[in-house]
Amino acid sequence: MHLEDYVKFIGQVPNEQIPSLYDAADVLVLPSLSEGFPVTVLEAMASGLPIIATRVGGLPEVIEEGRNGFLVEPKNPKQIAEKILLLLENNKLRENISKNNIRKAMSYSWQNIVQQLEKVYHKIISDK
Questions:
Q1: Is 72 helix (H, G, I), strand (E, B) or coil?
Q2: Separation between Cα atoms, residue 109 and residue 41, nearest integer Å
Q3: What is the DSSP code (8-state) at residue 92?
Q4: Is the pLDDT of residue 81 over 90?
Q5: What distance in Å separates the CA atoms of residue 34 and residue 58, rounded to the nearest whole number?
Q6: pLDDT tens digits along 20-78
Q7: Integer distance in angstroms from the first to the last C-alpha of the chain?
């Protein structure tokens, strides 16, 4: 399909190389057929990448349409291509989404997660 100048299929990489790959990317595309809550999306968000993902699993809870990425229907390459082109052709949109993703990723820090869990535990204890 002559994609080798545009797309790199690199397979599994060591964890320490992941940040440099996110830095080299313009967009994260996650065309999954099923997902739970993928760490890949959080890593990409923290790196400021816009996300294009399928509307499956926990992804709709993380991706806010047009604010930090786009959701597409599974098995719909046309929708994926349209969103990729939209992001690559619109620098302002890509920059806004990038800033939004960096901010949103902070809400998933371990410190914030622990604080949220503590609130839940305190509520459960105080309700008894």
A1: strand
A2: 13
A3: H
A4: yes
A5: 9
A6: 999 999 999 999 999 888 889 999 999 999 999 999 999 999 999 999 999 999 999 99
A7: 63
pLDDT band of residue 112 (cuts 50, 70, 90) is: confident
Instruction: Find residue 104's DSSP bridge partners.
Output: none
Break the chain down into helix, strand, coil percent, rounded to 5.
Answer: 55, 10, 40
- Strand segments (E) across 2-77: 28-30, 51-54, 69-72
What domains are defined for the chain?
A: 15-126 (3.40.50.2000)
Rg (CA), the chain: 17
Burial group, residue 38, by CB count within 10 angstroms (0-12, 13-18, 19+):
middle
Residue holding tokens 């989404």?
Answer: 97
Total number of residues shown for the chain: 128
